[in-house]
Amino acid sequence: MDPARACFPAGGVAGGIGSLSVLRIIVGVIFFTACAVIGSVRAQVTAPVVTVEGRAPREPDTDRAKTATIVDRDKLDRYQAATVFDAVAGTPGVSVNGGPRASGMSFNIRGYGDTDDVLIKLDGAQKNFEKYRFGGTFIEPELLQSIKVTRGPDLLSGAGALGGTVEATTRDAVDLLRPGERYGARLKYGTASVNDEITRTGMAFARPRDDVDLLVAATRRTGAEYRTADGTTLPDSNVNQRSLLAKGTWFLTDAVSLGWTTTTVDNRSREAYDATGGVPGVFGSVLRGVDDTTHSANLRATGAGGLVDFTATVGQSTTKLTDLHRPGQTIFANAITGNLVDSFAYDVATAEVKNASRWRTGAFGHEFIGLVQHVRNTRDVQRVTENATINSSLYPGGFNPAQPPGSRDSVGVAAVHSLSLGPFTVSPGVRWDRNAVSAEGRARENMIRFGQPAEVAYVQTTASLGLTWRLPTAMPVILGYRYVQAFKPPLIDEVFTQGAFSRCTVPNLGSLTPPSGICGNLYRPERADTQEWSLTLPGIDVRPGLRLDGRLAYFRNERRHLLLSLRKMGDEVTQAGWEHREGVEFESNLNGRRYFGGLSYTRIQGQVYDALRYLDLFDAPGDTIAVSLGARFFSGKIDLGLRYRDVSARSAVIGLTTGNRPIVGRQAGYELLDVFLGFRPSPDVEYRVAVDNVMNEAYFLNNGFGGGIGAPAPGRSVRFFVAVQF
């Protein structure tokens, strides 16, 4: 029997191909491939040899000059990370903007701190969305097995990731079951003293058959407002969050698997309106409700003598966010408006097909990776007050011109070919992208009314080159060089915003200001070039049972056509702004049966020209040294250790000139010491205690409003959890 007939009835597809979107075509290819695989191998299912590595696509050998760090489950438990941002603390080149709530945090990688500068993925599904001064990375760390942080752009990650990519992978039954077990459950209870937080987690997992892996989990996290080092509380920093995970994997053969993941996160709490600003009182606080759901389906296959290492992913991330403004609590609601409600509905659909082929021709080794991606990001925004007159005059039909509804649709095709000869590898790559930004609803009507295009498309071609050389030394040291081009298209807000938040106003554009006050197609994409030189020690056994690895990298990044520099110069609209940044990153890890530890160092500096003046790169984090040391005793039943971080002073905006230009000053540095202790009296019971900020250091978080000094950080916190597995 033709395996395709098991999924498609005769004539069921004919006639409709011409009207299908690229996303549907990719989904169809994935579905058809899955059906063909099922039909051809159903009769030869065998029990796979399952390891942690076996459940994920093999890491490509394409470019050993890439810079990536993986935070595994052991580290997540060791430091009892309450957010994905806590989990990556100490990773070179990585810091956090905003905080301390997860909704007010965003990743800062190599000085790129905007929420759209770093791609966020959960089991392959993209989760980026845009909202004014809002982080919005809703991922519960209790449900994760690992977090991978790639620093710098990469042709295979996706368009717009000038800073890098954060990829979170959820847990599987195989991560929890012990040899010979088919079913299991795990209960965990944790506390944190800094905000009286309580975390409860329950998991059930099973491998009812050798070819099926199933897991369901739920987490409830509640907490009061954070206490700072001086004992005061940080307003609007409470936590009230629920998370769910359902996941299943079917191993059709040793080489083929189908998987599905669904995660949900919902939160109800009072928060600062400008969540990433972290300065309560600037815009006030709102009652915020968030319902976030992520679905991800994947097909993975290997074989054909190394010619097939195939991954197909379809994902959808939806977020419904509601902000209730009450009179006197924010600057947007007063006695005239009454209560005001902002409603946001985000929908990010992802489809990706990728294959790596590896073969040899004589003395040459080859690896070719091909990739097709489609991401559609839509948002609908409504603002409604209790005053009908205000609604009809300022927000007709719920339309808020400062945050217009719209969509971004991107299609990308990339190819990277690595050619190896002895100790040398060269890896050229190329990527083509089409990114379209479209106005919806009344924003679309406005564009048409003023004779401006309601859809603006940007087509970009970027390239990369990687070079590596295994040095002829006793240790396996690799010298690497990497060059990557990247671009960032303007966002919905930048293209279609109307009013005070638009850059297309008379102060910026003068006589060239569009009558609509909407920028539309006046923007051009930002471009960035990154060069990186590295020296890598992949891993050596310094003695039996003790392994050491390390990496030293120096990078330079040039960013051109800054979106914020759009203005009139002479008789034309230009984006003459640029950024230059450079930095040094070092990372080393020691892992063994008895001892473990790590050392990292980051230094980033740069300059910004905004088409008016030169400034220090005030988005860059302070120079950071992070050290962790630990040891295991009594056959691993007890482990203890510490983590020390020294963060130097950094540039920050400390005021404004009379021309409303930033005055750049310094934000003080700080030192943090954390300690941890773990005790496993039996394989089924685990106790952990961690103390964050042992010395109760008073310091400030990064990225306050307008790039200023952030909110006071949480003070000392004692974390405790007990976990029981059945």
pLDDT averaged residue by residue: 86
Task: Work out the number of β strands.
Answer: 34
Can you say what the CATH homologous superfamily is? TonB-dependent receptor, beta-barrel domain
Overall body shape: globular
Which segments are poorly predicted (pLDDT under 50) over 5 or more consecutive residues?
1-62
Which architecture per CATH? Beta Barrel
What is the C-alpha radius of gyration, as a whole number of Å?
26 Å
Helix content: under 10%
**How does the major sheet shape up?**
22 strands, antiparallel, barrel
- What is the count of structural domains? 1
Oligomer: single chain
Count of alpha and pi helical runs: 7
Distance between the termini: 45 Å
Structural class: mainly beta
CATH class, named Mainly Beta
Question: What does this protein structure show overall?
Answer:
The structure is a single chain. This protein is 8% helix and 52% strand. The longest helix has 20 residues. It is mainly β and 726 residues long. It is built from 7 helices and 34 strands. The strands form 5 sheets. The chain has a 22-stranded antiparallel barrel. A hairpin with a 2-residue loop joins strand 32 and strand 33. The chain has one domain: TonB-dependent receptor, beta-barrel domain (Maltoporin, Chain A, Beta Barrel). The N terminus is likely disordered. The two termini are 45 Å apart. The chain is globular, with a radius of gyration of 26 Å.
